[in-house]
Amino acid sequence: MNKKAVLLLSGGLDSATTLAIAKSHGFDVYALSFRYGQRHQVELKAAQLLAKSMGVHEHKIAEIDLRLFGGSALTDSLEVPKDRDAKTMGEGIPITYVPARNTIFLSFALAWAEVLKAYDIFIGVNALDYSGYPDCRPEFIAQFEKTANLATAYGVENNSHITIHTPLISLSKAQIIQEGVRLGVEYMHTISCYDPSLEGEACGRCDACQLRKKGFMEAGITDPTKYMRAL
User: Fold this and answer.
1) Where are the extended beta strands (E) located within the chain?
2) What whole-number distance in Å separates Cα of residue 153 and Cα of residue 47?
3) Residue 31 forms beta bridges with which residues?
4) Are the C-beta atoms of 186 and 177 separated by less than 8 Å?
5) Phi, psi at residue 63, to the nearest 5°?
6) Cα(16)–Cα(217) distance, rounded to whole angstroms?
7) Which pLDDT tens digits describe the chain residue by residue (231 residues)?
8) Distance in angstroms (rounded) separating the CA atoms of residues 88 and 95
9) Residues pairing with 223 in the sheet
10) C-alpha torsion 130→185→20→23, nearest 10
């Protein structure tokens, strides 16, 4: 029997690649997405399409509302930064950071994993081509894994170790795309944009869009993304 794994599936490029990697390693994947009040909820349609087309065992969408706290351009009435150059993107933590988002998401994943008796959790965080989010760093993942093994009944009572898998954490966006293409990921079904149109077209100007375009260019692969304006 395949091993069970819970995987955080946003509908973006990174989570789709992580899903392909998990399946290539023989895991029976249980995908978890979130409707958390994000302005780019079109990503959930992408997540549903990916879950169906890539054959996950089960896909759940958790309903939480981080608009209650705000503090991010993704959950509050703040403008999403556009047209920032690479140097600017590398300075500080941007307003698109959602406070404690990955901590919250991983906690939900851990709860479901405990019910499933799954000892593996996958998340597509990346510490190279990203916008400075503190909860994408290896240090954070290592500490959360320790917490997972201390804070759950099955982590304490059983001999098996709960592992948080981050297969993309040390890869460039280009390397991620190349690996995904090798594994058959159809990136036309993914969306990375922080401020897409209601029709699901990417803005082409936010940090996420720029990193995505840069990744495809450096990978030497045609970008299949539908943008609002010509590249």
Assistant:
1) 3-8, 27-35, 58-63, 120-122, 163-165
2) 30
3) 7, 59
4) no
5) -105, 110
6) 19
7) 559 999 999 999 999 999 999 999 999 999 999 999 998 889 999 999 999 999 999 999 999 999 999 999 999 999 999 999 888 888 888 999 999 999 999 999 999 999 999 999 999 999 876 567 899 999 999 999 999 999 999 888 877 899 999 999 999 999 999 999 999 999 999 999 999 998 889 999 999 999 999 999 999 999 999 999 654
8) 13
9) none
10) 170
d(Cα 110, Cα 121) in Å, to the nearest integer? 7
Both tokens assigned to 24: 């290539």
Residue 108 to residue 196: CA distance in whole angstroms: 26
Look at the block and give the residue holding tokens 């405990």.
Answer: 114
Tell me the β-bridge partners of 8.
32
Q: Output the six-digit token pair for 16.
A: 């789709």
**Residues 16, 180: contact at Cβ < 8 Å?**
yes
In the three-class reduction of DSSP (H, G, I as helix; E, B as strand; rest coil), residue 221 is classed as coil
d(CA 138, CA 178): 22
How far is it, in rounded angstroms, from Cα 29 to Cα 5? 5
Other C-beta atoms closer than 10 Å to the C-beta of 38 total: 19
Structural domains of the chain ordered from first start: 3-219 (3.40.50.620)
Q: How far apart are CA 4 and CA 28, in angstroms?
A: 5
On whether the pTM is more than 0.90, the answer is yes
Q: Give the CA angle between residues 77, 7, 15 to the nearest 5°.
A: 60
Taking the C-alpha atoms of residue 179 and residue 8, their distance in angstroms, rounded to an integer, is 18
